[in-house]
TrEMBL record:
Keyword Transmembrane annotated: yes
Keyword entries, A-Z: Membrane, Transmembrane, Transmembrane helix
Name this protein carries in UniProt: DUF1295 domain-containing protein
The organism's taxonomic lineage, starting at the top: Bacteria, Pseudomonadati, Pseudomonadota, Betaproteobacteria, Burkholderiales
Lineage top rank: taxon: Bacteria
Transmembrane intervals: 6-23, 30-49, 61-80, 87-105, 111-133, 154-176, 188-208, 247-275
Record PANTHER family: 3-OXO-5-ALPHA-STEROID 4-DEHYDROGENASE, STEROID 5-ALPHA REDUCTASE C-TERMINAL DOMAIN-CONTAINING PROTEIN
Xref: Pfam families: DUF1295 (PF06966)
Length: 321
């Protein structure tokens, strides 16, 4: 392991130990998240071996982690000033938007990296603007407000771990395909074309799902109504599926680069995270509590991977737009 990478990895080992020590007992299901970069770094050292290109990729991935760490620390300080930890949701997209450009400029601005820069800028840029427009004017999200209330006097410092470093861990694992593509960009080829097509499919689902939901909320007559048409009739979470497909697009583009196939492992983790690990499951629990027709909707429409919905039976009496 290069010296810089070793120092970064060692610093994270120390920070993860503090995190685990401060974590309320008994530990919950996600107690292992602080250890994820520790394990990922160790696995990368074993996989990459003595390869010079492998050492370079590892060093750039570690530096990307430091960059995210610093950015999230700034966002945490802003959250204390604003008393609004949910600005993390807004910062999420902007950090992903800026990271490839920061790394590209740091490594000499190789023009071969333009395919990845174009699609990542379109994807993360659209997402960032949408989340800013949707979230920022409305104050702290109720989920974060409940955590703030339960955290009491310790919340100001514990939020750094529970929200900001936790998101940092997730992002650090996710960005491997971006780092691989920027660190060793290759001439335009079949992997770039295939990756762009998969990315485009994801972009249609994510952006289209967000647009349909925004239009539906503007026109509905009460908050219990349920959107089950358009892309929302193919999957209950077109935005999550779309974001996942876009990450697969980035990972396929990265395959063109040396050791870029490691990005496929990141994409597989993102798929688990979106489908089973956190995003979909949290939203499902919320929807089941707030939408009277959600059980019937679940019987007809898959949770994540799209397919044509089953016909609505006469006994299904859900409230729809």
């Amino acid at each position: 392991m290069p010296t810089t990478s070793l120092w970064i990895w060692s610093a994270w080992v120390l920070l993860s130990a503090v995190w685990l020590w401060a974590m309320p007992r008994p530990w919950g299901p996600g107690w292992w998240y602080p250890l994820l970069p520790v394990g990922a770094g160790a696995v990368l050292v074993l996989v990459l071996g003595e390869s010079a290109l492998g050492d370079s990729l590892l060093a750039h991935w570690m530096l990307a982690g430091v960059w995210l760490w610093g950015g999230l620390t700034v966002v945490w300080v802003l959250s204390l000033i604003r008393r609004d930890a949910s600005i993390m949701d807004v910062a999420f997209g902007y950090l992903l938007l800026a990271l490839p450009w920061w790394l590209w400029l740091r490594l000499g601005a190789n023009p071969l990296a333009w395919p990845l820069l174009v699609i990542s800028t379109l994807g993360f840029g659209r997402y960032s603007l949408y989340i800013t427009w949707r979230n920022l004017p409305h104050g702290e999200d109720p989920r974060y407000a409940r955590w703030r209330e339960r955290g009491g006097a310790r919340w100001w410092w514990w939020s750094y771990f529970q929200i900001f470093l936790l998101q940092g861990v997730v992002l650090w694992v996710w960005v491997m395909p971006l780092v691989a593509s920027i660190a060793s960009p290759q001439p335009l080829g079949i992997w770039h074309v295939l990756g762009a097509l998969v990315w485009l499919l994801g972009f249609v689902f994510e952006a289209g799902g967000d647009w349909q939901l925004t239009r539906f909320k503007r026109n509905r007559t009460n908050s219990s109504q349920l959107l089950d048409s358009g892309l929302w009739g193919l999957t209950r979470h077109p935005n999550y599926f779309g974001q996942t497909a876009m990450w697969w697009g980035y990972a396929i583009v990265a395959v063109a680069s040396p050791w870029g196939w490691l990005g496929l492992a990141s994409a597989a983790y993102i798929t688990w995270f979106m489908y089973r690990g956190s995003a979909t499951s949290l939203m499902e629990r919320h929807m089941q509590k707030t939408k009277p027709g959600y059980a019937a909707y679940c019987a007809r429409v898959p949770a994540f991977f799209p397919r044509w919905p089953r016909p609505r039976s006469a006994s299904q009496n859900e409230i729809t737009p």
